[in-house]
What does this fold into?
Amino acid sequence: MPNPNPYAELQQPIMQVSKHDWLTLEDLYAGGCCIIGATGSGKTSSAVQLACSLLQAGFGGVVLTAKPGERQEWERYAARVGRSQDVVIFSPGSGAAFNFLQYEMTRPGAGARDSANLTDVFYYVLEAGNKQATGGGDSAHWDAWVRQLILNACDLCYFARGTVGLQEMKDIISSLATSRAESHSETWQRESFCYSLIEEAEKKPRTEDEQHDFDECVSYFLEELPALSDKTRSIIISMFMSLATCFLRGKLRRMFCSGLTIRPEDTWERGKIIILDLPIKEFNQRGRFAQILFKYVWQRAVERRDVRQHPRGCFLWADEAQQIVTSYDAQFASTSRSSRVCTVYLSQSLPVYYSAFSANPERARYDALALLGNMQVKILHNQTENETCEWMSNLIGKAWTRKTSTNLNASPVDTMAAITGNTSQQGHSVGTSEVLDHKILPAEWQRLRTGGFRNRGRVEAVLHQGGRTWSNGENYLPIAFDQEGF
It folds into this structure.
């Protein structure tokens, strides 16, 4: 007999937020959860409860780290609910490796080994790592050139060696001809790694379509690229090298170029909790590049999965989320329900999110609000930043309220009486009117309790979810959490 309610499974309660209210699977899959509050507002208290609830429900997922110590926190969460065996640490000393090029060449799906997909991964990380690349102006011009360079380097590697390696791509680009005359000279052809791969590839059998792509690749490296001005060519090459060098040196080389011991599929097929122990405060730009790369590859993989075959829920978690957000996150959140993914991002305020996106202020604001708008569940803590207070009040909305006003009718000679409060001889009137005002005034966000000794370890917040009416009859629900250690 068919299930009369195909959505019954999605109603599984995950986290209790009041005596009569729960967050369910369906709630958390709807774009994810944004936890926002000023520094010291108690965001961690609500985050701990949500994290443990997800782990208790059997979710697998990816944890991005900004600060040292986050790995240890998540190890405690996992131990608390009996999931320690599912924790996978991805760090320089863990022995885990994720060769992203090898993964893209061997992963499931029809798009594997597609050089255009490899190019997307490369360029997306490059773009996200350098906000100026999205700042407007002539960026689209450079985007096209860098993508073309990466695409042809991937193709040449594959046609010659049957695989794609980051070191080989770097060696190709390091040995490029600087003019058309040089590209046809015997000296350059004898010494260039790029040309040696062209010769290797010429000996390999190819399909008709592959022959066409190979001919385009050869033309690009021998004719088109050498014909560019020295300045243009050097800018294109330096943009690629800034990313390649990051992953080909030091600890990241072993982690991202030497093997494939972890895969995105581990999170939904085996319930693994992959902690990227490369905190940005410790590894700086390299840690940011690395985590953005893994996050993007994981996001694309989880969107491809067959949820009927692998229905396990997954989460993507980031504290100090402004450190790793990208323009793709809003698109990912908009379709995460069908992928059974819960994205949980913690941050302080709207301006902090703005600073994480494009150098163009207008586009940065659009990207940030698009992301937060797609994250349907919002846990709103104490806030002191004015624009964020206004945004949170507008999110909750307005309602008609009755206000009382009193008018004193004093004559000019009675001005002193009005000042001194002696209004016994004055006329006055009392009236009421209905006005449309915020349900929660912007100033009220500063009064929410933030835990600590002064508040006896009690943290207050407001829960909002689009399209939801809570047990109190409102579209928002005041909630409270006990702070750990009290």
Observations:
- Residues 132-138 have pLDDT under 50 and may be disordered.
- The domain at 12-96+264-382 is CATH 3.40.50.300 (Rossmann fold).
